[in-house]
Amino acid sequence: MRVPFVDLARCHDRIRADIRAAMDPVIAQSSFVGGPCLTEFEASFASYCGVRLGVGTSSGTSALRLALVACGVGHGDEVITTPNTFIATAEAISQVGARPVFVDVERETGNIDVGLIRDRITAKTRAVIPVHLYGCPCDIAGVTGAVAEDHIAVIEDACQAHGAEYRVAGRWTRAGSQGRAGCFSFYPTKNLGAFGEGGIVVTDDPGVAHRISMLRDHGQSDKHVHAVEGSNERLDSLQAAVLRVKLEHLDDWNNQRRALAEKYDKLLAGAPVSTCPPGPECRHVYHLYAIRTEKRDALQEFLKSKGVGTAIHYPTPIHLQPAYKHLGYRPGDFPVAESWAREILSLPMFVGLRDEEIEYVAAAVVEFFQSR
Prior knowledge:
Blueprint: H1 8-29, H2 36-49, E1 53-57, H3 60-70, E2 78-81, H4 88-95, E3 99-102, E4 125-128, H5 140-147, E5 153-157, E6 165-168, E7 171-174, E8 181-185, E9 199-203, H6 206-215, E10 220-222, E11 225-226, H7 237-247, H8 250-267, E12 282-283, E13 289-292, H9 296-305, H10 335-343, E14 344-347, H11 355-371
Parallel strand pairs: 2-3, 2-4, 4-5, 5-8
Antiparallel strand pairs: 1-9, 6-7, 6-12, 8-9, 10-11, 13-14
């Protein structure tokens, strides 16, 4: 059997007619940039997240960078985040002129270790970007509590966590709703993915939303009035049309992912791997299903020989990437993040993944360890 790491066609085949119907009006109106389709999606996604405002962007990276600028972060500032994430999180920080300041992660979840944040705060700290890794929400109440007295902005990197939830003060809330801004990516493989690139910032702060709306559109406050220096980082209307159709299915798809993950958990219960379970205060949406083992590389090769697609997210933590050598970090500075980089392996996880495929993948993992 061959089991792909991801197969988007299985999901898209089910909604192909609905997507075409949604795109037809955009084509008929020739309203490809801006227009009602975009504003309707922005409002719908913001409401889904439990906030008032949404501003579409050209990517999740743009969402992070523009959110930082809108929150007043710039040259000479510091932003606390995690080294165990995709490099876009740090790129957004350094590209606004600020310095990424890393904090190690929790051994169980790979998310930022809240207990270490306060030790990294300085007079230059302007924001913290917690990452909801793989669709597992971090301790957002702990993050906001850690920086509240210093009036530091919390910008949630929810690029992998569409629809994920955490319990705050006894109430379930969506990822992206508890910081000053929440940032999402609509890269095609995400739980809510476009037919190309895209992103969004959600917020309850009208000032943040207004500034991002200008920044993404060459700094325009009105037609031909460029109030600030901006860029072209808009979400186009055809992508918004696709995303609005998909948004209606997101909760169902996330529930399917949870059911697939539960099946993996049961089948791998006897194998010497960590399945990275979520804590009781969060609802994981399994953008990725990751396991940990010290024999990661050998296991990946074995699964490849069995026709199973896998991926590593992420093989090198950001503080050890060549692009950030100038920050002066060394191996051993963040030992938990570095152990994740050595041990993590993502197994197939996508809507439409079949029970027999999960059984095959899990059996192959068990076989690998039995053979050792």
